[in-house]
Write a structure and sequence with these properties.
Radius of gyration of chain B: 20 Å
Distance between the termini of chain B: 20 Å
Largest interface: A-B, 30 and 36 residues
Number of helices of chain A: 2
Distance between the termini of chain A: 84 Å
Largest sheet of chain A: none
Shape of chain B: elongated
Oligomer: heterodimer
Structural class of chain A: mainly alpha
Helix content of chain B: over 70%
Order of helices and strands of chain A: HH
Strand content of chain A: under 5%
Number of helices of chain B: 5
Order of helices and strands of chain B: HHHHH
Largest sheet of chain B: none
Chain lengths: ~80, ~170
Amino acid sequence: MPEDPSSTTPPPAAEAEPETAPGGDEPTPRWVKTFVAVCLVVAVLFVVLKLAGGGGHGPGQHSRDASASGATKMHLS
Amino acid sequence: MGSGVRKLALTAHVVVSVGWLGAVACALALAVAALASDHDATVRGTYVTIELIGRYVLVPLSIATLVTGVVLSLGTSWGLFRHYWVVFKLLIAGVATLVLLMYMQTLEHLSETATTATGPVADAAILDSPTVVLHSSAALVLLLVATTLAICKPKGVTRFGRRRMRARD
């Protein structure tokens, strides 16, 4: 009985061999350029929002917000 | 790295990294519940729970993800800097871990506010802040991207990888 090719399972992704190095210099893959571009856009957006927000970013900001608004009505009994 | 050790390292890495993703999803669900609820006890308990998850689950799993990922990369032919998908996964894990460690201060502050405020929690404006939702959402997206990279392993050898492979040949 001929072997059913559909029954041949490919090796698990984790065990797949890494690609071998090409002979010459290959251009950077498009997905890498897209990934870097998206990261740069997100980073720029973050900086713009931070500058537009005018405040710091971190736990100190929340402390300042709480005391400035007078909303920290923590009356310790 | 032998086959058995490699599988063990891979198993450990998958467990901690997917566990980290799951814990972030839990934190996001809790944060949304805290914002949506008008019930004082729910809001207080939720922020305390988020801080506990952060301290005892998120931080250990994030560090374990970094460590197991580095060990696995160095112990296999994939290497740590030879392939773009590995480099990006390393960057994602590193940045996410760093931000998490810094953000723990905020979570501790929120938890402390939730437990010490004796008035209605609605008076503590900080507990109305969407900060935890925003940070959890961003972390979830990052970890999903990292998981996708790990499964798909898109092609792309770095210059360092090409030099190493040529030297080996």
